[in-house]
Every structure is written in structure tokens, then in C-alpha cells.
Specification:
The chain has 9 helices and no strands. The mean pLDDT is 89. Helices cover 67% and strands 0% of the residues.
């Protein structure tokens, strides 16, 4: 927890967070012993700087590989969350989900953005899995019940229903 909390100033300063994942355990232990036993901070300082430089380089590489966020999905993230949550909570299969996306979109999204929104909602629904359902405010029981319905009700893919 302390390492996590130590990143708060970095994140507030829009800097890369620190990770000690690549620091050899023996080196870290020696640095800590130097502080506790000898009141010498030089080795710990060097380990910290080395680890931070590696963390910053790794963070930058990961950030660049992810690319820029999609402005459309950012603007409509709450709407996407809502429609996906509705579909899952209702336990809809593929065909019913496609109909719900169309109906929901017509009721809540500006006409100019409807086609793009429908495609985004379908993509989100097709990409839904155990590792990301929580972002839609879903409980595991809701997701599991929907998954069973999704896999057994209607084998027509969502994309084919438009």
C-alpha cells in the first residue's frame, strides 16, 4: 500500500508512476539495510533513481502502444455503459440485444451519431468478458447469467442483425 501511495505525487504531477518490478531483490534489501543499519541513503537513492528511470521508460512505451483515446467513446462512455448494462441485466441474447441497441440508440442519441454509437455499442458488447464487465457497473452474478443467455439464445451475431 505504501508503494501505491508513493505514486500519488507522481500522478498528481502528471509524471510516470514508480514501479519496483525490475529491481533485484538483493539490491533493494541491501539499500534498505544501508538506511536502517548505517543511516546511509546513497544506495537507496541510486536504486530509486534507477528504478524510476526504468519505470518511466516502460510507462512511456506502454502509453504510446495504447494510442490516443477515442473521443467519440469518451463522449458517450456513460451512454455505452448504460446500454450495455441494460442488455446484460435483462439477460438478452444476440438478436434481442441488437434490437435493444437500435431502440435505445434511437431514444437517447442524437441522430447524427446514431450509426457510430450502434457500432460502438455492438463492439463493446462483443468484447465483454470476465475481465472487463465491472466497468459497466455489473455484478458477477449478472454477468454470468447474461453470459449463459448470450451463448444459448440465438446464434446470429449482433453485427448481422442491423
Amino acid at each position: 500500500m505504501s508503494r501505491l501511495a508513493a505514486n500519488i505525487p507522481f500522478i498528481k504531477g502528471n509524471l510516470a508512476p514508480l514501479s519496483f518490478t525490475d529491481v533485484p531483490r538483493e539490491l533493494y534489501t541491501l539499500a534498505m539495510l544501508g538506511v536502517y543499519e548505517l543511516n546511509r541513503t546513497e544506495l537507496l537513492r541510486d536504486v530509486f533513481l534507477w528504478a524510476y528511470e526504468r519505470s518511466a521508460a516502460r510507462y512511456t512505451a506502454i502509453q504510446q502502444s495504447l494510442g490516443e483515446p477515442d473521443p467519440f467513446r469518451l463522449r458517450y462512455r456513460d451512454a455505452l455503459r448504460s446500454v450495455i448494462g441494460d442488455i446484460v441485466r435483462a439477460g438478452l441474447g444476440r438478436a434481442s440485444a441488437a434490437d435493444r441497441i437500435v431502440t435505445w440508440t434511437d431514444e437517447h442519441i442524437d441522430e447524427v451519431d446514431r450509426g457510430t454509437f450502434r457500432a460502438a455499442a455492438e463492439d463493446e458488447l462483443l468484447a465483454l468478458h470476465e475481465g472487463n464487465f465491472a466497468r459497466y457497473g455489473l455484478r458477477p452474478a449478472e454477468f454470468n447469467a447474461w453470459r449463459a443467455a448470450w451463448d444459448t439464445r440465438g446464434q446470429t451475431p449482433v453485427r448481422d442483425m442491423n
